Amino acid sequence: MLVRCGFEGCKNRATCPGFSNYCKKHGGRYRCTHQDCCRFAQGRGLCIKHGYNKRRCNIDGCNNQSVMQGLCKKHGPTKQDSAKSSTGTVDIDLVRYLVMEYLGMNNWEEVHRFSAVCKSWQHSCLPYLSQIGIAPMDGGEYRKLNVPAFLSYLESEKFYHVQCIYIPCGKAKGLYVDEIRNVCPNVLTIVHSNWLMVNGRVEEVMEGTTRHQCYRVYRHDKDFTEGVNVWVKWIWDKKYKLVAESQFVTPSSHPRRSRMRTSFLRY
């Protein structure tokens, strides 16, 4: 039998008829499911005595019940902090603790997402946002790199003496190693999950008596000696090979014969 809420004019169902004759909106509570227990259930159908565990504060050594954002009243934001948050001046140390607790700052995409929450979170994420390109971070495997914006980002002073640069996106078409070296003259290693074009120019390599067109390419985990050999990507079969610098020849200037397409259909 359906029992309505005891509040006048309310047609909602009572939460626990015979124990609490009101709906949730008007203060109704559920009863502990343990046999013969008359206490209110605090969570998962149980009262504190029969198995419900309060969530403790995330601060080490504190056993108080958490009330907001994983923190107790002692360690969490006070009313004064809540009032300050409307002006963007909440305690940055507290926000940074929350970010590190739930994120760990190993994924730059998540850092961007957290920094977009509010001004206080953005200020808290700035030290980690500044590590993009300098320290190894996860994320961005399926992202396409904005090449002009990234090169402009590399022009900042912090990259001038950097010897290792991490490309944050998995797709970096149009980004050339020579362009990075022009912006960051001290860089020695460029870490990326895929091959990078060195300059994007088509060159020719002599193998035996045959010329093969190719691109100079680079990958941080493929060994080579600067000025002695280099990795190339063949245009004709898309494969990679380490060749000597002495094998490069001047591209032939013989014009190719133009072939006119002929239609053999009869009308």
Reconstruct the topology from this structure.
Elements: H1 79-85, H2 92-102, H3 108-115, H4 119-129, H5 147-154, E1 164-166, H6 177-183, E2 189-191, E3 196-197, E4 203-207, E5 210-218, E6 229-234, E7 240-244, E8 248-249
Parallel strand pairs: 1-2
Antiparallel strand pairs: 3-5, 4-5, 4-8, 5-6, 6-7
Helix pairs in contact: 2-4, 3-4
Describe what this molecule looks like in 3D.
The chain is of the alpha+beta class. The chain folds into 4 domains: 1-51, no CATH class; 79-129, no CATH class; 147-194, no CATH class; 197-249, SH3 type barrels, CATH 2.30.30. It has 6 helices and 8 strands, in the order H-H-H-H-H-E-H-E-E-E-E-E-E-E. The protein has helices spanning 79-85, 92-102, 108-115, 119-129, 147-154, 177-183, and strands spanning 164-166, 189-191, 196-197, 203-207, 210-218, 229-234, 240-244, 248-249. Helix 2 crosses helix 4 (119-129). The longest helix is centred in the middle third of the chain and has 11 residues, at 92-102. It starts with 78 loop residues before the first helix and ends in an 18-residue tail after the last strand.
